[in-house]
Amino acid sequence: MENVLISDSNSLEKSRCAICKIRSYSFCRCLPEERLKDFAKISEEKEFEDKKTIFLQQDQSKNLYNITKGNVKIYRLLSDGRIQIIGFLYPGDFFGSYKKEKYNYSAESIGDLRLCVFDQKSLDDYLEKNMNLAKELLHMTSHELTLAQDRMMVLGKMNASERVAKFILNISDQRLRIGWQNNPISIPMTRQDIADYLGLTLETVSREFTKLKTANTIKFLNPKQIYIADRDKLSSACN
Amino acid sequence: MENVLISDSNSLEKSRCAICKIRSYSFCRCLPEERLKDFAKISEEKEFEDKKTIFLQQDQSKNLYNITKGNVKIYRLLSDGRIQIIGFLYPGDFFGSYKKEKYNYSAESIGDLRLCVFDQKSLDDYLEKNMNLAKELLHMTSHELTLAQDRMMVLGKMNASERVAKFILNISDQRLRIGWQNNPISIPMTRQDIADYLGLTLETVSREFTKLKTANTIKFLNPKQIYIADRDKLSSACN
DNA sequence: CGCCATTTTGAAGGTTTTCAATGTCAGTGG
DNA sequence: CCACTGACATTGAAAACCTTCAAAATGGCG
C-alpha cells in the first residue's frame, strides 16, 4: 500500500530532496520546492563506511558530490608520500570536479558517510535551465576560495599554538553552521589527520592540546571529545 | 573625424573589449563578438601606479576587477602585522568579491597596472542574461580554488628549497600561460614579497636563491631577472 | 581483562628564524 | 666624474621552534 503511494501519485510523492534534512545547508537550497522532484533524478545517494576511498587524485573525474551525512577528508600526496589534508568536509559541503580532467585531490570518508552523487554532464545540463543554481555554486565556490585563503594564512604565518587553537574554533564554528551544538565538540579525525591538516606533526599537535588543557582553555572528555572552557582565551590564542 | 566614427557607427565602432589584447586569457573570452559592445559598457578601465592600494580587506566590497596590464598582489594581515601574500596576479586574472560584504583580502599594484573595474550589481545582472559567462566564472573560480589547494601543499608540507624552486617554476608557467617568454623571467616583486608569499623570511629566500645559483640551476642576470639554466633540476627540486 | 591502536611525554637534533653586518646598485649632488 | 645616500639583497652566527626518534600511557573493544 505505501509502495503504491510512494511510486505513483504526483501530489503525494515526496522526492528524496524534498525530505532532505540538510538541504538548507546545501547548494540545492536555492531551488524552489516544485523543482526538487526532477532535481532528485539527476543524483543518486550512496553510502560509505569509515576510511573508504571515494576517488583518487589521479582518477579521471566524472562526478560531483554533496555530503548528506558524515565527514570527508580531501587530501593531496607528494610523490615521496608526504600528505597535505586540504580540508575536512561536513554535511552540506560540496566536492568533486566540474571539468572532465583529473581530480585535484583524493577523497576519503571519515566515519559513516552518505553522499548525493551527481554526474558532471547531468548537473551541467541542469545548470543551463537553472541560473539560480549556477549562481549559488559560484557563490559557494567563491566562499570555499575564501576558506582556502584563510588556510594559507594559517599554514604560512601561524605557529603551532595558533594553528591548533584556530583548528578547534573552526570545528566549533562549522558545527554551528549546520545546526549542531558548538561546545562539547567531537573530533572525528585522528591526531595524525589534524597534523596533516595543519602542516605539523602529530606529536606537536598533541603537545599543543596538552598546553591548552593545562591552561584550562579546553577540557578533554576523552581524546575525541573537547569541551571549550574558555572561548575568549582560545580566540585570542589564534590572533 | 575619428571621434565621429568611434562614437556613432554600429558597424565601424570597435569597443574597448573588441580590441583587448588579453581577452583570450580572461573570463570574457566566452562572450561572442556581438556581445562585446554592450559588455564593454558595464566596466571601465582604470590605471594605477606602483604600490597603490586597490582596496583593503576591511573595505565594503563593491567591485570586481580584471587585470589588463601589470601585476597585483593580494594579501591578508594578522592583527599583529604579520602578512601572508595570497597570490600574485597576472593579466587576465580576475579578483574582488561577488557579494556585498567585506573583501577577503587587500589588493595592491606591483608596477604600472591597468584594470577593468566592474560593479557587482551590473555584472550580476549581466550574468542573468549570459549563462556562458556565469559558467566561465564558475570554472575560473574553481580553477583558482585548485591553485589555492596547491599552495596549501607548498605552505604545509614543503621545505624552503622546494618552495623557492616551485615559486620560480610557477612564475615561468604563468608567463607562458599569457604568451610571454618563459625563460629569462623577470621577478617584479621584492624578496620580502616572495618570502611573505612562501611563508618564509626574506633571508631564507635569498639563501635558497644562492643555493640554486651555486648549483648552476639558475643564473641571475640581475636580482630581478632569472635565467633557468636547468629546468629539469628545478622541477625535481620541488618534489 | 588484556590486547592493540592511538595518544602522550621525553630528549636530541635540524631547519628556519632572528639579529646583525656587509654588499650591491641606481639615483643624486658636489 | 666620483663620492654619497638609501633601498634592497646577501651573508654570517646564534637561537628558537618544530621535528625526529623513542618510550610510556591511555582508552576502546573483543
- Sketch the major β-sheet of chain A: 6 strands, antiparallel
Rough shape of chain A?
globular
CA-to-CA gap between the ends of chain A? 60 Å
User: Biggest interface and its residues per chain?
Assistant: A-B, 39 and 39 residues
Question: How much helicity do the residues of chain A have?
Answer: 25-40%
Q: Label the structural class of chain A.
A: alpha+beta
What would the average pLDDT of chain A be, to the nearest integer?
Answer: 91
Tally of individual helices of chain A: 8
Number of strands of chain A: 9
Assembly type of the chains comes to: homodimer
CA radius of gyration of chain A is 20 Å
Residue share in β-strands of chain A: 15-25%
Poorly predicted parts of chain A: 1-9
Query: What series of H and E elements makes up the topology of chain A?
Result: HHEEEEEEHHHEHHEEH
